[in-house]
Design goal:
The structure is a single chain. By secondary structure, the protein is mainly alpha-helical. It has 4 domains: 160 residues, Serine Threonine Protein Phosphatase 5, Tetratricopeptide repeat, CATH 1.25.40; 50 residues, no CATH class; 68 residues, Serine Threonine Protein Phosphatase 5, Tetratricopeptide repeat, CATH 1.25.40.10; 81 residues, Serine Threonine Protein Phosphatase 5, Tetratricopeptide repeat, CATH 1.25.40. It has 19 helices and no strands. The termini are far apart.
């Protein structure tokens, strides 16, 4: 009997000690002694007597939120996973706090929302660019558990939703070149009709790089079921059919599509690209210009028209170079033709460059063209 009493006394004293840890976490947090607050909160949630205490998890969430937010050099690098642990703690408190004693508090909601937003930022802007794909996936999975508790749709307003997290996980698996997970999530996104065509362009390119052309085409066609006029999807299909030497098949398909939808700029643009590849230059020019008539700021088409005129100028320039020296009259004609096309190329490259000023290749090409015409002032703009 004495042994039983001793055991009960021991258990009671341990439980009291762990409740003290909860109180200590609160006190240390209030006094901004974050290292001690962290130790007390961690001890409280890991001990069996308080591991299912909503209060313990609430304080742990607040402690890690404080670590995440502090500017004190002594504490701000105390735990590199403060955002993860804050969100996990807040979520666990939501699960345990059936009577909403703690989770309805405004400071609790603030900590939950800010920590979740911070974790989303870490996953997309730190982990993923640094190729820490496992950490990014773990962060998204933590956030997936947080979404059902979204207070007043605050997470949704910060673009943290179940669908968005699925998309971000998908993008991470693409970068990690995890083909099985990429296909799995791409199918899930297709089933919910997630509105982003990059799903289908990225998985198609990944599959093509892995040599799986058939599955790449399958995903392209899924994408085209949703985005029937997307130029990137059509361009990948062009590349595939080019490799398969089926360009005429695609030309026929698009000629029919243009007849049915004459105001569809994407069809005109892609058909122009096909004509260009097949050497039907006049038809290519006509389709490119029609696409620009429908949308004067279509960046890929502006580039393609500029490239078309630039390459045609090069062809005339080559003819000029191949002429015998005595053919002076033809030389003048060929040079005039080359210059005519180069000047047209400048017009469209400049329009493209105003929309895409980070394109170094076009910048260099514009400089090259202006130098050809002796316009050093304009050439210097593109140094």
């Amino acid at each position: 009997m004495k042994t039983i009493h001793l055991a009960l006394a021991t258990l009671t004293s341990v439980a009291i000690a762990q409740n003290f840890n909860i109180q200590n976490a609160s006190n240390y947090l209030r006094n901004k002694e974050l290292d001690k607050a962290k130790a007390a909160a961690d001890a409280a949630v890991t001990h069996e007597s308080t591991s299912n205490s909503a209060k313990a998890w609430m304080y742990r969430g607040k402690v890690y939120y404080a670590l995440l937010s502090t500017k004190d050099e002594k504490y701000k690098n105390l735990d590199p996973e403060a955002a993860e642990k804050a969100v996990e703690s807040f979520v666990r408190c939501y699960e345990l706090d059936k009577d909403k004693i703690y989770t309805n508090e405004s400071d609790f909601k603030e900590g939950f929302i800010v920590s979740s937003s911070n974790l989303m930022y870490k996953a997309t802007s730190i982990y993923r660019p640094n190729k820490e794909y496992d950490k990014a996936i773990k962060a998204f999975e933590i956030l997936e558990k947080a979404v059902p508790y979204d207070p007043d749709q605050a997470l949704k307003r910060n673009n943290i939703t179940k669908e968005k997290l699925l998309f971000e996980k998908y993008k991470t698996y693409v970068l990690a070149e995890d083909l099985n997970k990429t296909k799995e999530l791409a199918n899930q996104l297709y089933n919910i009709k997630y509105k982003d065509p990059s799903i289908y362009t990225s998985i198609s390119r990944l599959l093509l790089n892995k040599g799986d052309t058939a599955t790449a085409l399958d995903f392209l066609h899924k994408g085209q079921n949703i985005f029937d006029d997307n130029i990137d999807l059509l361009n990948i299909e062009i590349d595939i059919l080019s490799r398969q030497k089926k360009l005429n098949e695609l030309k026929q398909k698009l000629e029919t599509a243009v007849e049915a939808s004459p105001d569809n700029e994407a069809y005109h643009a892609v058909l122009g690209n096909i004509y260009d590849k097949l050497g039907e230059k006049e038809k290519a020019e006509k389709e490119y210009l029609k696409a620009l008539e429908l949308n004067p700021k279509n960046e890929p088409v502006l580039f393609n028209v500029g490239a078309y005129y630039f390459n045609t100028g090069n062809e005339w320039n080559k003819k000029l170079a191949d002429l015998p020296p005595k053919e002076t009259q033809k030389a003048k004609e060929y040079e005039a033709k080359a210059n005519e096309y180069y000047k047209k190329a400048i017009q469209y490259f400049e329009e493209y460059y105003t929309l895409k000023p980070d394109d170094k290749a076009v910048k260099q090409r514009l400089r090259q063209l202006y130098l050809r015409f002796g316009d050093t002032e304009k050439a210097d703009k593109y140094k």
